Amino acid sequence: MRISALARSAVIVLCIAGVFATTGCKTNREKKNPTPEALYKQARQQLDSYDYNRAIKTYEALTARFPFTDQARQARIDLIYAYYRQGETESALDAADTFIRENPTHPRVDYAWYIKGLVDFERTPNAFERLFHADLTKRPPVTARKSFEAFRTVVEQYPKSRYAHDAQRRMVYLRNRLADYDVHVAEYYMRRGAFVGAAQRATHVLENYDGSPAVKQALNILIEADNKLGLPERAQQVEQVYAANFAGVAPAARPRPWWRLW
After folding, report:
1. Digit-coded pLDDT (tens) for 60-102
2. Domains of the chain
3. What is the torsion angle, in degrees rounded to the nearest 10, for the CA atoms of residue 63, residue 69, residue 71 and residue 75?
4. Do residues 121 and 174 make contact, with C-beta atoms less than 8 angstroms apart?
5. In a 10 Å sphere around its CB, with 0-12 CB exposed, 13-18 middle and 19+ buried, how is residue 81 labelled?
6. pTM for the whole structure
């Protein structure tokens, strides 16, 4: 029995329709009940397209619905970066801390530490500080210390990390800033006549920030503080250290405060 051309065409159309119907049903099911793989793929595409806000929502949905999957573990790493790029610094720090606590031996835990350091490193001055060009070295460096410690963890615990070199370079900058702040504090103590406190701060700079530009001023302060405290022998020893490191440069005399008449 031969099938007419019209009948064959009808059969072909029905087959094609069936294929599309099946595909459509599958697509609708995936939208209503997405798999971990589908959610992660969607989030990653959003992240790669710099759509951090949507990526964050998709990653959060993935980790909430499928918390124990491989995709969720990878999503937690990606979330740290997405929060950071979106400017949600506290969320980035919380996500990094949670990942470090829950995955201490994960092969990418170094990245979580690196982002922790980066977030605090890049905290910007507020509007008034930018307007008046405030000297940030005089501001208590709370975030700088946190950043330094996070970067040091990367450098010391994960020396082969791809982020170790950059972390070390940032540590040099932070070390100099921390040293500058301690020198400012030591100078404040000197102005107030708190010579013991000034000597302790200057000594702290020498012991912890060797090689930083602030060492020169720290030695100056320590020499003067020791003389004020009636410790000429120790002051002389510090002068010898100064001469050995800064040959030909006499210790700078500290200017007398305008309000002090003697």
Report:
1. 999 999 999 999 999 999 999 999 999 999 999 999 999 999 9
2. 36-100 (1.25.40.10)
3. 30
4. yes
5. buried
6. 0.72
